[in-house]
Design a protein that fits this description.
Elements (H helix, E strand, L loop, with lengths): L2 H20 L10 H16 L11 H19 L6 H12 L8 H15 L4 H11 L3 H20 L10 E2 L2 E2 H10 L8 H12 L3
Antiparallel strand pairs: 1-2
Helix pairs in contact: 1-4, 1-7, 2-3, 2-5, 3-6, 3-7, 5-6, 7-8, 7-9, 8-9
Protein name: dUTP diphosphatase
Organism: Pseudoalteromonas luteoviolacea DSM 6061
Pfam families: dUTPase_2
Length: about 210
């Protein structure tokens, strides 16, 4: 397997594990992942800036985080409980390697949203177009995805559902701790996700 396919397989496995933690038979529940995609697209547009009547500067970091969130939903749409993760990863790699772009980022994002609304699907090609226009690589996606997915697991394990989870400690939100931890680690390490989790656990107030 190529390095890209290996990373895509890891992300698919992690997404399936997270969804299963929420609902054991999640892929037969008919959850509206496509709706989550277009809602996230609208939120991302606010971070990028679209209002012509006032000065706006794209918040690139926030846009990248939103793209990572969309990829969670995109993977969830692709997992069907039958097709192997390796086969799904190969399909995604092919689509991501052929970015579909419009004139600017906002219009490419609208292609991604339109696919979700009209076809209830995840357009990996339009997603790749957004990535390219914002200067985001597959490595950036992998780093951001594994980090956020691991944080979601950590939250669930530490009382997120019950309302006992502490989101801010040492005057920083858990997301900020996550960024610091990820930057200190080797994303190519096979235990990258476990190291992220251990890093969060070491910092979290007991």
């Amino acid at each position: 397997m190529s390095a890209n396919i290996t990373k895509l397989v890891v992300m698919l496995e992690m997404q399936n594990a997270m969804n299963t933690k929420v609902h054991e038979q999640w892929f037969s529940q008919g959850f509206e992942w496509y709706r989550a995609i277009w809602v996230e697209c609208a939120e991302m547009l606010d971070h990028y800036g679209w209002k012509w009547w006032k000065k706006q500067t794209p918040d690139t970091e926030q846009v990248i985080l939103e793209l990572v969130d969309i990829f969670h939903f995109g993977l969830s749409l692709r997992i069907d409980g039958e097709t192997s993760f390796e086969e799904l990863a190969k399909q995604l790699e092919t689509e991501l390697a052929s970015p579909k772009q419009a004139e600017d980022f906002k219009q490419t994002l609208e292609h991604l949203a339109a696919s979700a609304v009209a076809d209830k699907a995840f357009s990996a090609a339009a997603f790749a177009g957004c990535m390219q226009q914002i200067g985001m690589s597959l490595d950036d996606l992998y780093r951001g995805y594994v980090g956020k997915n691991t944080l979601n697991f950590f939250r669930q394990d530490h009382g997120y559902k019950e309302g006992t989870y502490i989101k801010v400690w040492d005057e920083k939100e858990d997301n900020e701790h996550l960024v610091e931890i990820v930057k200190s680690l080797d994303t190519e390490h096979p235990d990258f996700a476990k190291q992220v989790y251990a890093g969060l656990a070491a910092r979290y107030p007991a």
